[in-house]
Structures are given as structure tokens and as C-alpha cells.
């Protein structure tokens, strides 16, 4: 009886050890978890820009569109390439000037998504160049007092013959949320700050 009991315990222990090893083995072979909702993306965005600062005194707002391609990487990241077209509107009191100001942004950057679910909030950063086409150019004159303190700024329009083009550095930071509607269709809502470095005294921000 003692021999049987010892043999049974050895057999039971061996079976238990084999079962533990069998349960632990597949864990090392489990493939990485695939993304549920995030993948490579093609995004078309309509946009409205409200300008700020001195630039706002000439060009009050802008409308346009972006086309954005995003390459998905693990850990909720995408590498994004973006091109667009933005048309700016003159301030109401300058409509008589009948001018135009258009921008073609060429940007590269990325997004970080906080979750991989049907609702995907994210932060984004893009930078690159803007190709600017304008028929009205202006500069800002800074007026200082005798002690060197800035007391006023005046906008002066430059004489321009026809269409002129500029290339300027630009960057963009934003907060947004992507909402999955069906398997391959998302709605992307975002608020972004743009800086187009039009002039040091009149940066195109909005």
C-alpha cells in the first residue's frame, strides 16, 4: 500500500508538472495582438481657419481641404503625409482691394492615438513648407517711443505687380478624435493650431 501511494504521488506530481509546462509553453508562442481599429489611413478633411494677430487685420479667415495618408505602426502611432489647398478671405473693410491669398501646404508628421477602439482620441504634429501665392503683399511697421517701447503697429500695403509666390516653413499641432462608423470608414474631428511664418511681424496663425 505504501509503495502504491508513493507511486501514485510520483505519477500525480509528474502529470501536474507536465500540465504546467504544457500551459506555459503556448504563452511564448502567442503572436502580437493585432490592431482592432487602427490601420493605414487615407483621410480627406475640410477645414476652416480663423486667423490671429496682424495677419487677421488683412486676411480674416481661410477655407480649404487636406488629403492625408497615414502609415500605421505598432503602439498606436501613424506617420502622416499631408497636402492641401487653402484660400483666404480679405477682412471686411478691405473687400475693395479685390486680392487673393492661397496656400498649398506640404507637411509630414505623425499622430499618437490614446486607444485602439471605436472612439480614438489623438494628438498630432505636422511640419513642412507652405507654397504661398498672393496678389496683395503687406508689411507691419512697428512704432516705438523714445525709450524703445513698442507703442503701435501700422500695416502698409506693398505695390505688387501680378501674382507673387513665397515658400515658408510651417507647423501644425492638434487634438482630435477618430470615430469608427463601419469597418473601413472613420469620421475624424480635430482642432489644430497652424503657424505659417508669413512674416515675423505678421505670422499667419489660426
Automatic annotation (TrEMBL):
InterPro entries: OMP/PagP_B-barrel. This is Outer membrane protein beta-barrel domain-containing protein. It comes from marine sediment metagenome.
